[in-house]
Design goal:
This protein is α/β, with parallel strands linked by helices. 38% of the residues lie in helices and 20% in strands. The protein is built from ten helices and twelve strands. The structure holds NADP nicotinamide-adenine-dinucleotide phosphate. NADP nicotinamide-adenine-dinucleotide phosphate binds next to helix 5 and helix 9. The site of NADP nicotinamide-adenine-dinucleotide phosphate (NAP) has 27 residues, from helix 5 and helix 9.
Length: 300
């Protein structure tokens, strides 16, 4: 008898590097919990192979993809349709394979405000924000905070020219939100910190526990919320410092899960259970911690 045709579908995340991705853990837990025959895999895709990978995926049994560094912006030219929000942001983190077409979305932006509100109660309308960074993640955060009616957004980046370009791009869409580029130095930030309601780290500072620019958090008002997009470690140096000051914190796993939940919904039409995602993420983090710890049972 010929083998039965498989009904399994594939989903995944593409990036370079990709080993660090935690998405397979919680996405596979969701597909299993919903009884769906979908396997979510990490794919290492070099920039020069992106077009070829997508062409092959289009001809295969793909349901959807997440997109991470360095493809979020370059993928736009390979897509058949792009959702309006993703087009304005200029970055795509989710692709849906729909009737032979590749359709691009950005779930980082809506996922961020959703998680910020759920975890801290913060609502951006009429607030003053200090956004650190001007890379792919900062674009999505800037877009959504301005779209939600932030009053003023300071954009501080190590390379100031990138912050200037970002402010120029988004000012066109949101003329009511004041946007001011700044150098990422303690000196320039000191002056504005007393007026900041929300401080967002959208740089790689603190990733893997590394120290970075020292921000004088003591100059922030007590109402301020500190949000760090970096999620390894869960409690970054910035968040630890904020906690010691008694400020409300918003760790990076919130965005990781929210954007993943919205991607899952786009692929399947099902609103996923966050508790399942959280448990799978926690299990994966514990496993990584154990694997990275020195082997206590080795004699030499
Ligand atoms: P990206 O496009 O490569 O941008 C990196 C940003 O970090 C740039 O603004 C860069 O400044 C700045 N930067 C890097 N090293 C720095 C240093 N030593 N000192 C000061 N600034 C530095 O990366 P991205 O996609 O925006 O991601 C940024 C961070 O957000 C990463 O840590 C990523 O893991 C995290 N992230 C988390 C989630 C989540 O789900 N929680 C989602 C997306 C991203 P220059 O412009 O001067 O180079």
């Amino acid at each position: 008898m010929p083998p039965k045709k498989s009904t399994w579908k594939i989903a995944g995340v593409i990036g370079d590097p990709i080993d660090h991705s935690l998405s397979p853990h919680f996405q596979n837990a969701l597909f299993t919990s919903c009884g769906l025959k979908v396997l979510y895999l990490p794919f290492l895709v070099k920039p020069e192979h992106l077009g070829k990978f997508l062409k092959q995926a289009k001809e295969s049994r793909f349901l959807g993809l997440n997109i991470t560094i360095p493809h979020k912006e370059t993928i736009l030219k390979y897509l058949d349709q792009i959702d309006e929000t993703a087009l304005k942001i200029g970055a795509v983190n989710t692709v849906v394979f729909r009737r032979g077409l590749l359709v691009g979305y950005n779930t980082d932006a809506p996922g961020y405000v959703q998680s910020l509100k759920n975890e801290t109660g913060f609502v951006p309308k009429n607030k003053t924000v200090l956004l650190l960074g001007a890379g792919g993640a900062a674009r999505a955060i800037l877009y959504i905070l301005a779209q939600q009616g932030a009053y003023q957004i300071y954009l501080a980046n190590r390379t100031v020219s990138k912050a200037v370009l970002l402010a120029k791009r988004f000012k066109r869409f949101f003329p009511k939100t004041a946007m001011e580029p700044l150098p990422l130095t303690s000196h320039s930030l000191s002056k504005i910190l007393p007026s900041v309601d929300l401080l967002v780290n959208a740089t790689s500072i603190g990733m893997g526990g590394t120290q970075g620019t020292k921000i004088p958090l003591e100059r922030l008002p007590h109402r301020s919320v500190i949000s760090d997009l970096v999620y390894r470690p869960i409690l970054t140096p910035l968040l630890s410092q904020a906690k010691r000051r008694g400020l409300k914190i918003h760790p990076g796993w919130g965005l990781l899960l929210s954007q993943g939940a919205l991607s899952f919904e786009l692929w399947t039409g099902i609103v996923p259970r966050l508790d399942i995602m959280k448990k799978a993420l926690l299990d994966a983090l514990v496993l990584r911690f154990i694997n990275s710890a020195p082997n206590l049972f080795t004699q030499d």
